[in-house]
Amino acid sequence: MTKRRYLVGVLATLAIVGPLAYLWQQSRMPGTYNVMDMGYVDHGGGPTTGGHHAADVSVDDLRVQDDREGDVTFVLTAREERFELASGRSVNGFTVNGTSPGPTITARVGELVEVTLRNENVPAGVTIHWHGIDVPNSQDGVAGITQDAVRTGEEHVYRFVAEQVGTYWYHSHQVSHRQVVRGLLGAVIVLPAEPDDRLDVTALAHTYGGVRTINGEEGAVTVPATSGQVTRVRVINTDNGRIPVWSGSPYKVLAVDGYDVNEPTTVNGKLYAVPAGGRVDLEVVAPARVQIGGSTALVVGEDSEPVRQPRDTVDLLSYGSPAELPFEAGATDRDFDYRIGRRPGFVDGVPGFWWSINGHLWPDIPMFTVEEGDVVRFRIKNSSGEIHPMHLHGHHAVVLSRNGEEATGSPWWVDSLDVEDGEEYEIAFLADNPGLWADHCHNLNHAAEGLIAHLMYAGVTTPYELGDDSGNEPD
Amino acid sequence: MQKAYKILAHTIAGLVTIQAAVMVFAVAGLFYWIEEDEGFLDKGVIEGWDADPPTWMGAIGVPIHGMSGMFLIPLLGLVLLIISFFAGVRGGTKWAGIVLGLIVVQVALGLFAHGAPALGLLHGINAFLLFYAAISAGRAAKTTSVDEPAMVG
């Protein structure tokens, strides 16, 4: 080989390896870092005031008053172990008080819920996030943002007032793409002050090792009911993908993500698609078979033959009747774009075909900054090739439009919204819960792959850190 | 260097063969799981696979196909191209470039097939082209040499 050829070879090698090495190096994250230092600030067209100043409030200070005693108290002990599901199937995973799903947390509206989380033996640490409940920020349970992960042998107390009646769930937000999938979760039900006449049934769907379950049971799960008994079925999708729900009997969609639907109408021969992380309360009259995915069903009263999955889907954009919103959704103070795409690159040193937010890969993504009292609008556009169930912590947003078509039905309040490939949603919410809030895809694999941004209130800071050396890995 | 080039080219061809094998293993196992073990598949089930894999025989084929196709084979393709600069194989860089190009196309087709299943047809056909190119690269190393292997002044 001549010297010239050799030199050309070396230069060609450098031309290939050099840019790759540069991109790899640039993408690597330090051992510890603060979420507030990530990415770039996006003010959404609003004022750029706020930021770091003497009046900064720590997320720790955003909590319910300390001197108020808990009305309902629970102790949840997290373990990593081999355990039996209610169906008798044995699986490796995580339990809460020895079972998965863990115990249901039930409270009446207005009660102060106090939960002590103990980590018995989970080496990676655990937290509890109250999915769909707009808790004070310090109680949100996101490791590295609102608290440190609870290490083995330690405990942490959560306190929040159950202000919104509805169906919710709790799950770990530490290494959540593993811990949630493997069972560290349970249901939360907030009951109205006055008891409801309906039979009340919770159907928490979760898949263990490729097998779908309802409350840990497989196949058709029967609930005794008398013929004609009106029943509220609370479906909770704790999986990473949407679950179709349908029935051969007529049903009504009573509530979505903990918010009542205004004047729900009777649905016949349509399926309801529950987004990952989402919940729906259906009203059926016994006997009724509510199919939850293809392999599991909740049977209320006497069983009947399963019916085929309908082709048509309930469209909440036009379901129910309009009602007044608690804020002027047309007069927004901040307008944000949340454009989801996909492109090749490096994320924390790992090459891949990663999700992008507004064209950027994690961590070079927007920090959506608001001030308390702002009316905020997000345009969520998905051109990534896959569906994304987008979940905003600490707030409920109302859907304004989809692909330019305005919502005409009941106010459609969401904390978990499926945005299909090619769709664009406009949603709005009132910034009334100060803090640092995750706004991410609840396909938890996608969140771990960088599809997670944050909503930051001006003047709020966090003392907690992320990064490999911090012990906090929220996704 | 020539030997390294040849081994690497044949390794890529071998891995392409394994890619096809494990995928068919996975699909066959999946159908068996559904038909014989009453397994059920939907989006929620699929998206839990990474952290909590199902137990059907052949399920391991899915992560093998993904890891090998997304990381190992592209890496080896890149190394093959770099080695080609120094191996002195006649047409070696050309073949390595073709191999790497086909790998890039293959990965893109595999990823985009999730949203456009018809691309899966091209993914299958391109696998044969990639296999042929990798074998051809290996053969080029066996039969020819541009010049002497050692560097001279």
Q: How does this structure look, described?
A:
The complex is a heterodimer of chains A (475) and B (153). Chain A is mostly beta strands. Chain A has helices at 3-27, 176-179, 444-448; strands at residues 40-42, 57-58, 72-84, 90-96, 105-108, 112-119, 129-131, 155-161, 166-171, 185-191, 199-208, 211-214, 220-223, 230-237, 243-247, 251-256, 259-260, 266-267, 272-274, 279-285, 288-292, 296-300, 334-347, 350-357, 360-361, 366-370, 375-382, 388-392, 397-402, 405-406, 413-414, 416-419, 424-430, 436-441, 452-457, 460-461. Chain B is 73% helix and 0% strand. The longest helix of chain B is centred in the first third of the chain and has 35 residues, at 2-36. The radius of gyration of chain B is 19 Å and the shape is elongated. The chains are: A mainly beta (475), B mainly alpha (153).
Provide tags for this entry.
heterodimer, A: 475 residues, mainly beta, 8-stranded mixed sheet, 7-stranded mixed sheet, 7% helix, globular, B: 153 residues, mainly alpha, 5 helices, 73% helix, elongated, disordered C terminus
